[in-house]
Amino acid sequence: MHAWLIYSRKDVDQNSAYIDWFIKEAAYQHISLELVLREEITIGVQDHQRIIKRNGKTVSKPAFAIVRTIEPLLNLHLETCGLTVFNSADVSRVSNDKALTHHHMIDLDVPMVDTFFFKKDVIPNSPPIPYPLVIKEAAGRGGNQVYYIESEQVWLDCMSTIRGDYVIQSSHVQLGKDLRVFVVGKEIIGAILRENSQDFRANFKLGGSARLYELQEEELAIINKIISQFNFDMVGIDFLIGLNGELLFNEIEDVVGSRTLSAVSNANILEKYVAHIKSEMNKRNSRKLT
């Protein structure tokens, strides 16, 4: 099978080792995985038909595409044009909107902090919960566009900088500490506890530490409840840590990196991911033949 691995140009350099690993892992499992830059791809409607072009030319469609950019419309367009996409458009759409993710998660009775949803041009005179609180832009990721608000002045300053839809959340958690659970298909690959004593955000890229974490039975039950409701391919499910040590749902990372998992374990998540993709493609091809 020949497939596309789609990255934006700006992300290629910092992910070059990961991309090489991905391509080699696919080759081991008899998949020809080609790096394709998002900037090379044109999608849209021409002559009343959806089109996909690469470098301005119509090309043969790959067997599938692994999308490593955050652009749910791209996933949706490729799917509608007949490609199988990993992650799916539905997973991409929900995961990359913090408000939408929490909207769906409450139906599963998954514990979470109080979370309020706002459009970017809706600025309340005062927050819906007492200070301190946290504001996150709904489309932010990697700890970016996240603000810790301790006072009215900080609130006013933050409101003047918000550029997208956002959520407001309670900060009654263990600040600078969270748990990332890596998932491929329906399988939990590993969990990483991330801690940062210098920042209220625990992200590894922001100077935090990471260690392998053994999930307890009640924690596994929460995670499996989420997994059972979504058709994940490879994602990270992030949890805040409550004041009593309990897991509180935070977000789902669609385009998840595995730097921390590789740093603290021998897990080969890309081997499992490629095997999952092969299995899914075999299922789809079998259905086409019946």
List the helices and strands and how they pair.
Elements: E1 2-7, H1 9-12, H2 16-28, E2 32-37, E3 41-46, E4 49-54, E5 57-58, E6 64-67, H3 72-80, E7 84-86, H4 89-95, H5 98-105, E8 115-118, E9 133-137, E10 146-149, H6 152-159, E11 166-170, E12 173-184, E13 187-195, E14 209-212, H7 217-229, E15 234-242, E16 247-253, H8 259-264, H9 269-289
Parallel strand pairs: 1-2, 1-6, 6-7
Antiparallel strand pairs: 3-4, 4-5, 8-11, 9-10, 9-11, 12-13, 12-15, 13-14, 15-16
Helix pairs in contact: 3-4
Describe the fold and architecture.
This protein has a five-stranded antiparallel beta sheet with strand order 14-13-12-15-16. Strands 2-1-6-7 form a four-stranded parallel beta sheet, with helices on both faces. With 290 residues, it is an alpha+beta fold. A hairpin with a 4-residue loop joins strand 15 (234-242) and strand 16 (247-253). The chain is built from nine helices and 16 strands. Helix 3 runs antiparallel to helix 4. The model has no long low-confidence stretch (mean pLDDT 93). 32% of the residues are buried. The chain is globular and about 55 Å long. The chain has helices at residues 9-12, 16-28, 72-80, 89-95, 98-105, 152-159, 217-229, 259-264, 269-289; strands at residues 2-7, 32-37, 41-46, 49-54, 57-58, 64-67, 84-86, 115-118, 133-137, 146-149, 166-170, 173-184, 187-195, 209-212, 234-242, 247-253. The chain folds into three domains: 2-86, Rossmann fold, CATH 3.40.50.20; 115-170, Dna Ligase, domain 1, CATH 3.30.1490; 173-271, ATP-grasp fold, B domain (D-amino Acid Aminotransferase, Chain A, domain 1, 2-Layer Sandwich).
